[in-house]
Amino acid sequence: MRETTGRPPAPPVRDRIPAGGLELLALLTRLLRRPRRGEHRLPVIWLVRTAVAGDPMPLLRRFLGQGPRRRVPHAVLDVAACPPGVDVPMLLRDLHRQLCLEAFGTARLRFRHYRLADWLMHQGFDHDAEDGRATLLRRLRDRQARTAGGEATPTGSDVVSLATQVLLWLARRVVPGVLFRVAVSGRVPLVGRPYRWFMRQQYLAPRQSVTFLGFAERLTAGWRDGEQPDQVNKLLLHAFLEDLRQAYRRRPWRPSDWRRTAYPVLLIDHVTAGGVGHVLVRLLNDVRNETGRNDPLLVVVAAEHPPPELPEPHSLGDADEAYDEWSDALPEMRRLRRAAAWWVVFRPDDTDAGPPPRGAVRAFAAPDPPWWSRRFLPAALCLVLVAAGGLWVGTRWAPGCHPSLTGDVAVRVVEGECVGYSDSAAHVFNTDPGQDRLRAVQRRIFAQNRDAERVWRRSDRRKPYLTLVYLGTLTGNRTRDDEESYVSEREELEGMAAAQRALLQESAGTDGAALLRIVVANGGRQMRHADQTVPMLAELARDDPTVLGVVGMVDSRTSTAEALRELNRVGLPVLAPTLSADRMDANSRLYLQISAPNTDQVRMVEAYARQVLKVDEAHVYYTTGENSSLDDDLYVNTLVEGLRQRLGERITRLAEWRTGTPLTTECGYPGLLFYAGRWSEFDGFLRALRACGSDPPKHLVTDDSVNRYMANPSLRTAAPATSRSPMCRRPPWRPAPRCARPNSAATTPGPASSRWCRRPTCSTRRAAARKIHSRSASGSASPTTRR
After folding, report:
1. Which of 703, 699, 690 minimizes the C-alpha distance to 777?
2. Taking a C-beta distance cutoff of 8 angstroms, is the pair 244, 109 a contact?
3. Residues 6+ apart with CB under 8 A from 760
4. What integer pLDDT is reported at residue 153 of this predicted model?
5. Which of these, 511, 273, 484, 365, lies nearest to 67 by C-alpha position?
6. Model confidence over 566-625: pLDDT tens digits?
């Protein structure tokens, strides 16, 4: 909080400063500046005029009213200028009018309790008690509701107009009326606080009225005549001070409360003993004593004589010491409820030699509020929160990767990939160019999900309804715009879609036939983000008891093993058609592996080299994929380790091959050249071997991961022309006009059977264990696809 000494001085004043005036201004500066912690005890300062010292009021008005920017909230009541018959309520009304102005550089003070009490005192009725209470209730309700009159209402006799009129009437009359009665009752927390405060304060014995309406009626004109005037005035003053207390209350969650850095001041001039000004300060003393509560109002009184309660004033030159003495004695005087417990009387010392000092008086300005309570802070904080929220949303979601309200979708962005799961067309994985067929099969699955749910609901949920999750690698590959990179995943989804369609057709006429819902999940490239996807699937399984298990998993990597352990922990079985790394089953007791492990593949490779190729030497090259290592890639790791153990010293070269590494040393190699790496680098491996020209290696054999390369039509065009693969070439997965059952002479047309039937172009699929060896130097042989 800045000190006022750094502000530019006000223009010099020409009036004489009373003797001791500078000490008085120093005391006021001390009292008006609000401390950061705690509050000052503010007395009623009674200044006695003397003919020698001069009038202190002009000095105080300039001191309080000419501050730059942030002035002290203050009001001036000149009792001598008031009309005859003025009373305490009139003075409080004038005080309220001056303090509630927004003219002091801070938010204006609001007086909820005082305004309600003053409004009640201005209400009068010419009816009996029952009519008067009903009228008062209506006026109170209208005062609170503040409904706008003269609004146009719909006209017409149709049903819509009548319903609109009824709704408007309810909104304008019934709802506010109900809320008002709840507020007036004072029984519901946080509602009707002003009414509840009146029933809990001590003046006019509010408990005798039972309800607030009864108490309010006692304050109205006519009914108020039976109450003690001092009690009514104390109630008004107490309500006024309560509003000031609430305005100056500091709450941590409201920074605006901390902007009030100076206490309000009331200047009362020309006070006489027994006059209305004297009565007001006496009532203030009594209210503070009787309620036991402090308030933030500093009162300065100017009079010709000291008050009868304290006939011996202090010297104005000793103002600071006198205040300290009063502050120490206040607790005891409050306990005894002394008539002048809150008063401190000062009088200029007429014995001061020489004329009063002249000079410039710096006007007091309210200290600047703390930086964290400035008006710009809420807006800045909102902007920061919005920016942080936007940044968080941007790192978690993206325009094409976000949750949906229309389907069961849980996705998030991880390192540029959209991982998670989806069961509806609200989110389809992979927006890369060239992956139209992958997106098409997902949309077909999602459409069949809706069909299956529709059939299930129409059967009154009697049919078994199961959910399978396909978890694979659906994003992350670097491809050309005209290249389909996820052929294996697409064909796996096509197989699941065909099975789903078959069950859907079978269940059409059988109540016991199961219906299948497929949830498509993405673990990211190389299953690197399976740790992000599996918790989402675990939450799905907890919320949906129809989830049967997970199919897929794609790659044998450490991230896949971790995902298996987590799925085992939550009790989800896993069916893995392609995983083949050794000891994958150790990660889950609910795991079923279809493919043979690498141990079997290594034994077949060794037998093939020894019995068919008749070679006793081998060169082995391996790759692990982009941004991966041998420790992370369990498939390549266990395959290389198995080859090392099985072939032993027959392996004369074992090395990791990286893209761009030349392979001219393998030109004309007569032994077994075995590629034990990932399919994603096989194209570069072949291009490196082409440098051999007419002297290629004699025997190139690959692992089963290369089947993914051979399954991709755009990639296998680069393979040697004489290479053979067990992959049967088939036309795209599409509806067929009709389908005949095998070994059946009859052809049964129909929309259910003809839509998904297709005819293979190869008669049989070769056995997975059969190894195909290229008879050309650059040929390749590859077992069935396992990873």
Report:
1. 699
2. yes
3. 728, 730
4. 45
5. 365
6. 999 999 999 999 899 999 999 999 999 998 999 999 999 999 999 999 999 999 999 998
Residue type, 184: V
Residue appearing with tokens 């082409």: 690
CA distance 708 to 181: 75
d(CA 471, CA 435): 18
Distance of CA 647 to CAs 302, 492, 624, 736, 747, Å? Answer: 112, 34, 21, 49, 54
SS3 content of the chain, % helix, strand, coil (to 5): 45, 15, 45
Query: For residues 422 and 431, what is the distance between their CA atoms, to the nearest angstrom?
Result: 14
* Prediction pTM value: 0.57
| 672 Rama sector, left if φ>0, alpha if ψ -120 to 50, beta otherwise | beta
Answer for the pair 515, 503: CB distance below 8 angstroms, yes or no.
Answer: yes
Among left, alpha and beta (phi > 0; psi -120 to 50; other), residue 660 is left
The residue to which tokens 């006009």 are assigned: 737
Structure tokens that stand for 608 in this block: 């093939």
Closest by CA to 120, choosing from 135, 100, 131, 101, is: 135
- The number of residues making up the chain comes to 787
Q: Strand locations in 24-153, DSSP E? A: 44-48, 74-78
Q: How far apart are CA 342 and CA 41, in angstroms?
A: 9
Per DSSP, the residues of 71-96 read PPPEEEEEGGGSPTT--HHHHHHHHH
Q: pLDDT of 256-281, one tens digit each?
A: 788 888 999 999 999 999 999 999 99
The dihedrals phi and psi of 758, each to the nearest 5 degrees, come to: -140, 155
Task: Give me the amino acid identity at 574.
Answer: V
